[in-house]
Amino acid sequence: MTNSHSELKQQTGSERDIDYEKAQHGVRLLLEAVGEDPERHGLTETWQRRVPETFSTLTEGQREASKPTMRTFDAQTDDLVVKTDIPIYSLCEHHLLPFFGTAHVAYRPDGEVVGLSKLTRYVRWQTRQLTMQERLTNDIASGLADELEAPAVLVEVNATHLCEAMRGVETESTTTTRASVGDLTEEEREQFRDAIIREEDL
Ligand SMILES: Nc1nc2c(ncn2[C@@H]2O[C@H](COP(=O)(O)OP(=O)(O)OP(=O)(O)O)[C@@H](O)[C@H]2O)c(=O)[nH]1
Ligand SMILES: [Zn+2]
Questions:
Q1: From which residue to which does any coiled coil extend (predicted)?
Q2: Which CATH class is domain 70-201?
């Protein structure tokens, strides 16, 4: 093996780690199962390093230690903050294949606003787990409400699932899911819809 377990732990920080030995073993077995030779040139680093590292990154959302810090600033406003078109890449828990697209998020502040980049970082952190689109959408909405102590949050996710495109039904389509927390006024809902429509018109 090129990278020992302890070397990999040092590289990534132990509290952020997956079990590398298990991941290496599992990927090796999968390669054997599909008739590959895990020792052939081109595949050794695949099971020893690349896939375990990839899955460590793509499951960061399951580990609190990888959660971004949500820096806030005083702001005497309760006007909805809307952020549209955040790119997302997540993993379908049924087939371990990606689903990807965009997320739109909005929250009503209560005396404090969060740094704008943190909204993107938080969404990215949530996407990095094995999940379903509906659960991801709910997790982003309820997580943001908790993190920001925001009285109201709205989230929309539009995504294409490779498990539908590359296999199975073999059709590429877009799925839209929405989640909200708190009592949103009709005006706020309209503001969110307008921001999304404007983004789509660009
Ligand atoms: N609701 C929901 N379903 C999903 C999501 N990702 C994948 N699926 C669906 O999960 C279902 C799994 O169904 P199964 O019948 O157990 O699996 P399957 O035989 O591989 O299904 P097919 O994909 O239709 O071939 C499929 O219909 C997938 O399209 C998701 O994020 N949300
Ligand atoms: Zn799937």
A1: none
A2: alpha beta
What backbone torsions phi and psi does residue 3 show, to the nearest 5 degrees? -120, 125
Q: Are 83 and 117 in contact (CB under 8 A)?
A: no
* Cβ-Cβ contacts under 8 Å for 77 (sequence gap 6 or more): 109, 113
Q: Does the Cβ of 166 fall within 6 Å of ligand 1? A: no
- Mutating to test ligand 1, I would choose from 89, 90, 94 the residue with most ligand atoms within 8 A of its C-beta, which is 94
CA atoms within 13 A on the CB side of 21: 4
Listed by start position, the domains of the chain span: 5-58, 70-201
pTM: 0.92
The 3-state DSSP class for residue 177 equals strand
pLDDT at 130: 98
Ligand 1, atom 4: closest residue by C-alpha = 132
Question: pLDDT, tens digit, for every residue of 54-112?
Answer: 999 999 999 999 999 999 999 999 999 999 999 999 999 999 999 999 999 999 999 99
Distance between Cα 125 and ligand 2 center (Å):
20
Q: Measuring CA to CA, which residue among 87, 89, 27, 90 is closest to residue 53?
A: 27
Q: Is 161 in the pocket of ligand 1 (CB under 6 A)?
A: yes
Q: Which of 161, 159, 160, 164 is nearest to 137 (CA)?
A: 159
